[in-house]
Amino acid sequence: MKKPLILVTNDDGITAPGLRALISYMKEIGDVVVVAPDSPQSGKGHAITIDNTLFSTKLNVNKKKDASLEYSCSGTPADCVKLALQELLDRKPDICVSGINHGSNSSINVIYSGTMSAAIEAGIEGIPAIGFSLCDYSWEANFDPAEKAIKTIVKKALKNGIPKGVVLNVNIPKASKEELKGIKVCRQARANWKEKFDKRTSPAGRDYYWLTGEFELLDKGEDTDEWALANNYISVVPTQFDLTAHHAIQGLNEWGFN
Amino acid sequence: MKKPLILVTNDDGITAPGLRALISYMKEIGDVVVVAPDSPQSGKGHAITIDNTLFSTKLNVNKKKDASLEYSCSGTPADCVKLALQELLDRKPDICVSGINHGSNSSINVIYSGTMSAAIEAGIEGIPAIGFSLCDYSWEANFDPAEKAIKTIVKKALKNGIPKGVVLNVNIPKASKEELKGIKVCRQARANWKEKFDKRTSPAGRDYYWLTGEFELLDKGEDTDEWALANNYISVVPTQFDLTAHHAIQGLNEWGFN
Description:
Two copies of one chain form a homodimer.
Chain A: E1 5-9, H1 17-26, E2 31-37, E3 56-59, E4 69-73, H2 77-88, E5 95-102, H3 114-124, E6 129-134, H4 147-160, E7 166-172, E8 182-185, E9 191-201, E10 207-217, H5 225-230, E11 233-240, H6 249-253
Parallel strand pairs in A: 1-2, 1-5, 2-4, 5-6, 6-7, 8-11
Antiparallel strand pairs in A: 3-4, 7-11, 9-10
Helix pairs in contact in A: 2-3
């Protein structure tokens, strides 16, 4: 049987330890091609580069360990997927995996996430896609406890397919192998960020801000990704890019626009 | 009665004609505060600035015509809304309007849209929000045929409220006042972009790409925004930021993860 072709990308950049871990896991499942940003792209959401040029370099960051085909790209995660599919790959990948992100993309974070936008971009192009994130922002984070679950999810997605219009958002709690309780299919918890702008003054006397904030969970449901993660489960949220609030159409029709 | 406070933003930048048109329409409805990017931010999706500083300048681009409070911001559209709500406004706005974008944000374009991300950001913060886009990329586009409809939609939203978790994505066809047929509540059409990368070589001999593409409509429904626009209707799509594909949860539970 022909090995599946796996496109691997991320938003933390091509040298990120989370990407290197994902590459090593995927090499046990299929043929791997990496197209990842040449610099960190966290929080880039679904940005694409329309007013600037894109550079791409064929390279191998870690030749011995991951002897796979690798390209860096000067654009966003969504750019990487577009460039991979249209220019760099010689056939359509069987699956696209993005991550492993250094930090959570659960709940409302999915909106800001470059990791998930790469997966969503692949989904828009009709390719089964999964974003993986570990709830640990450290560059020294330990991805190994989730290795087995990540491989299980990818293998099952390759076998079952992922429904059309859906990509999977997988978040992994910061927990040891012993603490991990399993995988739970969830919905996105309702939450937002309570922003705090850290206002400072530049040496030249001009005020500026750093965006900071605190995550505010507004959802007490036990069927959410936040609940799962807080209870040491790996969360899998089926995520869609039809943003229509179908339930709101009828009510809006009663506004009597015309 | 106290006039409503209207936060106006966009993604084409604070000097864009579409923004100036929206400001002038909104000044007839309420008190206007503008917080808009200091440079074009098209295609920035829901990017936020977490690895750079944000500058904001109080200014008045067009003092005579729009004597409203205005701020430029060095960040993305989503940054503008966050900064407005947390730092620049002294009370919560009654509504946030974003646009008028120079170009369509219908169908899958909503995913890449800075205009809509600003509206969605306000929606996440619990503020009724609407993104407006005209299907005309020209800087000399004529926004006036839609003036009446834009005011109607904003007034109705102020009166009725917008359902929690929903923001409105309004797209306006390029049409004369006589050609415009009215307003239609729609769902997001299924579509994608068929990318074409324009590959060139720099003077220094390095290959680079420009992202270009063609819009590919994959949906024959007559209840979609694309159908409405093609038939000279203004489309209103209720848009949500709970991305959960609820219909896919049951099927995924049958994968037997654990």
